[in-house]
Sequence to fold (345 residues):
Amino acid sequence: MLDLQSIGVRLGSFELADVSVTIEAGEYFVLLGPSGVGKSVLLEIVAGLIRPSAGRVLLDGRDITGLPPEQRGFSLVYQDYALFPHMTVRRNIAYGLPRARSARPAAKRRAAELAELLHITPLLARRPETLSGGQQQRVALARALAVQPRLLLLDEPLAALDTNTRFRLRKELKRINRELNTAVLHVTHDPEEAMALGDRVGILLDCRLHQVAAPQELFRRPSDPQVADFLGMRNVLPVGRVDDKICHICGVDIHVSSLTAETTHIWIKPEEIILSQEPFASSARNQFKCTVVEWDPRGSLLAVRVAAGDLSLVALITHASFDQLAIEPGRQIYATFKSSAVHCF
Fold:
């Protein structure tokens, strides 16, 4: 178990303050945030490459804050892979293993095992410059895993890869984590990547750790509007006056089934809003006339922004619905959603 206790560091004008988080044995933990907030700095503090100015790093209860990197038993994989160009894939994988003549057969076996695990056995005799980006990343992962690290540190490992390769390697990373039971600390700026991989995700914004939770919990109950905004959650609204499960927001009454005294914001998922040309009979408590403002494509769907007075909402609809509704700016349509579709935090 890795335990970061009130970690702080100042590097020039940059300051990371009071970061506390625990990573359990075998856990896949993702640190998510935009560029420049200190994700890689925190990773290098864990690796021992940067000494924090405050706080402690504990491993199974032992203080390793001042321990040099080579004595921590961690492996670090950077975005650029850092493979040795003059070595074959086999030699790259075995680089961190004992080099004595008597140890060579074991190193060769270990390289072969990891090559099979990562589906790169046919590449063992090749050199890095002959490999694709995805193949190089697999080699870098195999080299990091060869020394059987207690913690695998990954710094934006998929950022330089194309979409299809990223998707395939995401599945590989999760599989490796489960098969080897190696704890992983993975840094990324990509929310989709974080949600696909993380057992838990820590949101680092403004050089501060805002929230740590399972992916589904982050969307159910973001800790604050900044987290919701970074995760791309549309239709996040501050709660105004409340009367018996009804929020009065921007001149519109919104029925909310899960409203509590602690609620400060509500969130309506765009895919839970139904747009129609006319009002229709439904058990949904929220239905009002609105005006189309704009729209933009989102892959196989379209995001349509509508306004009801001063209230602005985004709904996701199919291209077929877009044509059927004859969507255009200024068109009057109806928006409908259930009170149970309004999520509170």
Remarks:
- The chain has a mean pLDDT of 94.
- The two ends are 30 Å apart (CA to CA).
